[in-house]
Amino acid sequence: MTDKTILIRLVVKNVSLRRKLEEIIASLKVFKILASDSPSESDLLIFELGDDVDKEFELIRKLLASGSAGDVLVVSENTNPKVLLQAIKTGIKEFFSLPLKKEEVIQALEKYKQNGISPQGRRPGKHGHILNIVGSKGGVGATTVAVNLAVHLAAKRNDLSVALVDMNLLFGDIPLFLEIKPKFHWGEITKNIDRLDATFLMNIFARHSSGVHVLPSPGYLNGYPMATPQIIESLLQHMQSMFDVIIIDGGQSLDKTSLRTIEISNTVMLVSLLSLPCLSNSNKVLKSFESLDLLPKERIRLVINRYLKNSEISLKDAEETIHQEVFWTIPNDYKSTMSAINQGKAVCELAARSEISKSLQGLADALFPAEKQTEKRKWKLFGR
Known about the structure:
16 helices, alpha/beta, Rossmann fold, eight-stranded mixed beta sheet, 13 strands, 2 domains
């Protein structure tokens, strides 16, 4: 038996059903219901199924995959055998039919209290690493870098959950780069900030086939309120509890919201080219960071995109000009890059053996070394 508090999140629209569940849970020791806006991970999620069960089961799968919920109990009027089978396949532990029987709920919760948490207690919550990718000027390839890093990490690293956020708050291109058609976008966050929690966010995110969860920006002027520094801070705090890595396509804006995003990021990657206009802009951006005291210099990574070894401006010239060491270079490969963009694929999907793909994968590994992955491989080999 555990003496640790077991956190429960309720996703229940029926008011009377919610009250009944709250009364049952309050009568038991150890259990605690999370507030709707709490970013904490729950041990148990109690979810009321509605009319669109396929969509709701997909949401539950996302919550389980991201670690935002430990186990799931479902309440539903629909007891069709197909729905019950779908619940089992989704990984749902208990299925309560309506009208709700108090004894069944208590029995299920007591069973979880006995068996649900290991002797080591609840797994530690995530505190995701925020990587903010900023372009020195428009057209330097910041979106290409952001998309490819996210896809590589999600597809190749089973130990990491990855989210990709488009902070080009108007006319962002990430859906085109990944050939996805998201139903929701940034505006849903700003319009419904009071509903911000893990369940709501998982409904908003679009999921790419690689496993990346994407939060796109609005595609046109539509009257939604703009994101404020407070909204972005709240959003990223919630996302840090849900994902291991949050990659932000930060664009080129340096407004108040963008500056706050930079300030709370763990790492800021400045993407530039070996050209005088780009290096001049890079110098201005770095001086702005310094003068505003946004983040220490060691948290900044300078990446040179479309790098040519025989460029008139050398890497040494660039470093001396902007007083920042070059962290990584990405070779110039117009054909592979444009082909990938036009087909809505990541470069690593379309041209995995190309030099640019190898460079982008190397950059991902340099930023997030795969130590845990190595340990898992050793364990699997030992277990054979």
